[in-house]
Automatic annotation (TrEMBL):
Pfam families reported in the protein's UniProt record: EF-hand_6
Keyword Repeat recorded: yes
SMART domains linked: EFh
UniProt name for this protein: EF-hand domain-containing protein
EF-hand domain segment(s): 40-75, 119-154
Region listing for Disordered, in residue ranges: 1-25
């Protein structure tokens, strides 16, 4: 059983026919997922979707996923591709490899699910600020390694390396948590956080 409404599926059963007025209403009424985000956030998701949609047909399908993985130097397995495509909104019980794929509304719905699983931006900032001794928006990588590997839900060395390897760690060994949170939460406004005095 899917957690998404069946009307979000690109493949409605052939017995399900919409009347002309229902089709017209469906075109006029926006999806509820668009109300979860502000316009700049939706634009960022649209740009990401367009990068993945190599053939520019408005659908991300298996071919598009293969292209994006190849451009990243990854050879995906068929199971990986099937798993990504089957996690889309709608009734997935009748999905076959010939189906269209994921459109932008489905993509946005999937992204909203993932983003709303995280704590809010102020909660994340407060958590990191408790470890930021200098109030400069960074935490020492050495300390992060120790905390992530030894406390609470421990992470493996590989997970920690993967987490800290990205663009948010500088050459001096500091993790810029403010920038990381901005990217993670797709910051609602374009404003920089105010410097603390």
């Amino acid at each position: 059983m899917s957690k998404y409404a069946n009307h979000l599926s690109p493949n409605l059963p052939s017995t399900h026919k919409l009347t002309k007025s229902q089709k017209s209403r469906a075109r006029r009424e926006p999806s509820g997922v668009f109300s979860l985000f502000q316009a700049p956030q939706i634009q960022q998701f649209k740009e990401a979707f367009q990068l993945i949609d190599h053939d520019k047909d408005g659908w991300v399908n298996e071919g598009d996923l293969r292209e994006i993985f190849t451009s990243l130097g990854i050879t995906p397995t068929q199971a990986t591709l099937d798993n990504l495509l089957s996690s889309r909104p709608g009734d997935t019980s009748s999905i076959s490899s010939t189906d269209k794929g994921i459109n932008f509304t489905m993509f946005l719905t999937m992204m909203s699910e993932r983003l709303f699983e995280f704590d809010t931006e102020p909660e994340l900032l407060e958590a990191f600020e408790s470890f930021d001794e200098n109030d400069n928006g960074t935490v020492r990588v050495e300390d992060m390694r120790r905390w992530l590997g030894e406390l609470a839900d421990r992470m493996s060395e590989q997970e920690i390396d993967k987490f800290l390897k990205g663009p948010f760690t500088d050459r001096q060994g500091n993790f810029n948590y403010r920038e990381w949170i901005k990217v993670l939460r797709v910051n609602e406004d374009g404003n920089e956080p105010e410097a603390q005095t």
